[in-house]
């Protein structure tokens, strides 16, 4: 962390929690409930409010994940309310209540709440596999959205070094980087520069309450 003094480090703000333990982000428009955590996988429920620039503006919503893929994990989406739009290997689809969408390791994808649906999206997301790799877990979601919301409240934009440090730790790779260099970018920009030189971390104590290690 020899050059950590050069990094713009915002104050990390605590996240509101509902009585049932639900994590509340972006003025209550994005909520995450951890449903099941085990060695076999992790399931969480993601709630997206309708008519919000953070969650209800279609693919342009602030919380929409970038087009990406998981190196080792399978990801399963099960809508419980509303309509989930998703992009999978360059083709756009819609999933409704009762549908199950399975994304295999290496498949490029992203998803968002259908802004034309009558209700906001509520979707259960399960990630499985990866062996001994940490992969995408509850710590990733809590830290990612906690960090993004902290910056929003302070009128700042996320650091690419921090965002890639998060993604590198979860084996999540940006799919739009040309020539298949996404994994290399994770290592060089997120890990070597972001973590080792600038001092960004893949997780922070303020967002790790109740997280399994």
Automatic annotation (TrEMBL):
SUPFAM superfamilies: RmlC-like cupins
Database matches in InterPro entries: Cupin_2, RmlC-like_jellyroll, RmlC_Cupin_sf
Signal peptide coordinates: none
Record-linked Gene3D superfamilies: Jelly Rolls
Domain of life of the native organism: Eukaryota
Transmembrane segments: none
Domain Cupin type-2: 65-116
Pfam families reported for this sequence: Cupin_2
Name of the featured protein: Cupin type-2 domain-containing protein
Lineage: Eukaryota, Fungi, Dikarya, Basidiomycota, Agaricomycotina
